[in-house]
Design a protein that fits this description.
Distance between the termini of chain B: 12 Å
Order of helices and strands of chain B: EHEHEHEEHEEHEHEHEHEHHH
CATH class of the largest domain in chain B: Alpha Beta
Strand content of chain B: 25-35%
Largest interface: A-B, 18 and 17 residues
Oligomer: heterodimer
Structural class of chain B: alpha/beta
Mean pLDDT of chain A: 93
Strand content of chain A: 15-25%
Low-confidence stretches of chain B: none
Low-confidence stretches of chain A: none
CATH topology of the largest domain in chain B: Rossmann fold
Strand order of the largest sheet of chain A: 3-2-1-4-5
CATH superfamily of the largest domain in chain B: P-loop containing nucleotide triphosphate hydrolases
Helix content of chain A: 10-25%
Radius of gyration of chain A: 12 Å
CATH class of chain A: Alpha Beta
Shape of chain A: globular
CATH architecture of chain A: 2-Layer Sandwich
Largest sheet of chain A: 5 strands, mixed
Number of helices of chain A: 3
Shape of chain B: elongated
CATH superfamily of chain A: Dinitrogenase iron-molybdenum cofactor biosynthesis domain
CATH topology of chain A: Nucleotidyltransferase, domain 5
Largest sheet of chain B: 9 strands, mixed
Number of domains of chain B: 2
Helix content of chain B: 25-40%
CATH architecture of the largest domain in chain B: 3-Layer(aba) Sandwich
Number of helices of chain B: 11
Order of helices and strands of chain A: EEEHEHEH
Number of domains of chain A: 1
Distance between the termini of chain A: 33 Å
Number of strands of chain A: 5
Chain lengths: ~120, ~280
């Protein structure tokens, strides 16, 4: 399966970006092969709809779960519609987040954890 | 002639000026386009004879026709649509429309070659019209939670009655709602106050009026307090100062009681007629 970890950089030792819709990179991690792919977030600078379009982009990558700091209401709704599980409150490096996920230390969120446009602040 | 009363800064006296000007003229209509918090009716106390919902079009998607090509989402300038294609046979695709981001441009409807998108009307507020004495009146009230005030402002402006002098009370600021109110006006009054805040926002409003190529002049409210920077700016930029209203506790008290300026101080009627004469020559 594939995970998406929001990241401030392009390597597994980069810090997790606390924002979903406006994160700098999406790190796509294949848990079967251990491979990482860094995808620049083209939506980060949108004046509106960044979370929605990020969710659509992530869904297009075929990921099953998103690991991030916070998720806004629109992104939550779109990710939910795509059947993608969302894990919030994730911090540290990308690799640490993946390990925490593998060890079952993360809990899926039941609702948005940030208000609209909170990633712009 | 359509005259819009605007200001960069809020609370400078737009409604005071708009109501006073309307009440001083004959064959006149006042349209309150500050749809996020309309207040001209508090002074005019019109009897509203007509009221109806104002709607804007938003897309409705028929998933049985959708091919999940994603063109609508890709083209939407406001990122209001998410297309989630089916991932496998057991998980159907879906299309999410975020109404509150939609500007009702209709591009998605036009682009969808599968004919899966139609428009439905969404109520965003109400428009009302009536009269207060000889003043024809109209306003719009945005529903709480809605943000597309320009669409509602255009509905209020659709009530313009040809052959009358029309005074438009604009929202404050210089963003989209103000542009929606200003567009198509023959002249603009920028109300300001002689403070650093007043000047800062006046400069922005001046740039807006110039960009829209609408002739404008300035009314300085509470003109005898604050500093001289607004007047110096107007002089430097060759902007006509059409009128000055001095600070007065009595004016403030009458405004707080909902009494129009020209009722509390009838001599202002002549001053506002004189102001109208100046506006016609801008």
């Amino acid at each position: 399966m594939k995970l998406c970890i929001t990241s401030e950089g392009t390597t597994p030792d980069a810090a997790v970006d606390p924002r979903f819709g406006r994160c700098r990179y999406f790190m796509i991690h294949d848990t079967d092969t251990g491979a990482y792919e860094a995808v620049e977030n083209g939506q980060a600078g949108f004046s509106g709809g960044a979370g929605i379009q990020s969710a659509q982009a992530v869904a297009g990558k075929g990921v099953s779960a998103v690991l991030t700091g916070n998720v806004g209401p629109n992104a939550f709704q779109a990710l939910n519609a795509a059947g993608i599980r969302i894990y919030t409150g994730v911090a540290g490096t990308v690799a640490e987040a993946v390990r925490a996920y593998a060890e079952g230390k993360l809990a899926a969120t039941a609702g948005p954890t940030a208000g609209p446009k909170s990633g712009t602040r | 002639m359509i005259i819009t009363v605007a200001s960069g800064k809020g609370g400078t006296g737009k409604t005071t000026v708009a109501v006073a000007l309307a009440m001083s003229l004959e064959n006149v209509q006042l349209l309150d386009c500050d749809v996020e918090e309309p207040n001209a009716h508090l002074f005019l106390k019109p009897s509203l004879t007509e009221q109806h919902d104002a709607c804007m079009p938003v897309p409705a998607v028929d998933l049985s026709k959708c091919t999940y090509c994603g063109l609508c989402a890709k083209f939407c300038a406001y990122h209001a649509i998410a297309v989630i294609p089916p991932s496998s046979s057991d998980k159907p695709g879906t299309v999410l429309v975020f109404d509150h981001l939609c500007h009702g441009c209709g591009a998605c409807v036009t682009l969808c070659s599968a004919g899966a998108i139609t428009e439905r009307n969404k109520a965003i507020g109400t428009v009302a019209s009536g009269s207060a004495g000889h003043v024809r009146f109209g306003n719009g009230t945005l529903k709480i939670g809605e943000i597309m005030s320009p669409a509602l402002i255009r509905k209020v402006k659709a009530m313009v009655e040809a052959g009358r002098t029309v005074i438009i009370d604009a929202p404050p600021g210089t963003s989209c709602p103000v542009i929606a109110a200003l567009r198509g006006s023959d002249a603009c009054i920028l109300v300001t106050e002689p403070t650093p805040f007043g000047l800062n926002d006046l400069v922005l409003a001046v740039e807006t009026a110039r960009e829209l190529r609408i002739p404008f002049g300035v009314v300085i409210n509470r003109s005898d307090i604050g500093d001289g920077a607004v007047k110096e700016y107007c002089e430097r930029e060759a902007i006509p100062v059409l009128m000055e209203i001095p600070f007065s506790r009595e004016i403030a008290a009458s405004a707080s009681a909902g009494v129009p300026l020209v009722n509390a101080f009838p001599h202002y009627r002549d001053e506002f007629r004189y102001l109208y004469g100046k506006i016609q020559k801008l």
